[in-house]
Task: structure prediction
Amino acid sequence: MLDVYHAEPGANTLKVLLALKEKGVDFNSHYVALNKFEQHEEWFKKINPNGQVPVIVHDGKVINESTVINEYVDAVFEGPALRPADEYGKAMMRIWTKWVDEYFCPALSYLAWNWMIKSLVKDLTPEEFEAKLQKIPLKEQQDKWRITATEGYPEERLKEWRRQVETSVTKIDSALREHGKDWILGDQFTLADISVFAMAHPMPMGYQDIMNEEDTPHLMAWYNRMMERDGTNAALTMPNKMREEVKLDDRVDVLSKQGKE
Result:
């Protein structure tokens, strides 16, 4: 039995949902409403003490961290292989997934949080907000919530994260141009594609000045191939209740301006 605790099909949750749908794995879906701060409730922290999604529970064994989950899913469940068969290929794949986790994802995450958290907590009193903060198990996350809900990050930080996003987009487009193949590693669709797409998915809307047909044609061609995959479409049809809290028009307008000269 596989239970998956997840939020909307975006970022790290999307990463895991993509792998599961590509493999054709059956699972019990448990939606965790981030807009209601359910990831910080005691019932969920008993599953993942870090208070973060996604998490899987396979035959009673709990695994968190989306990149680790995806390698586990590919190794344990039947279905199309999402990792290269040879060790060198696996190493190249992990270089990409590590880069996404340590560089691409954090830059996008901080920029998104800098505007999104304000909208989620706007109706809370200072006392209610502080009570929510105290439920967050990781101090680093508490600090992130407090900063983004109040004054926000300084402009120089936003500019640096935007530079990192621009660098990331250029890196992906260049890699695809250089080998001229369909997928990040070449001919085989792998977890590297899944990791990159999970972060890049909203960018043609929120960062259209960075990721577009003219400036990043190879990346956009890859993006369109990703959007045509059955696994992608199945993952993207999972519940997305956050749309009710955060207006997409606001998202496009704010994300496209943050950290921009």
Q: What stands out?
A: The CA atoms of residues 119 and 246 lie 7 Å apart. The chain is about 55% helix and 5% strand.
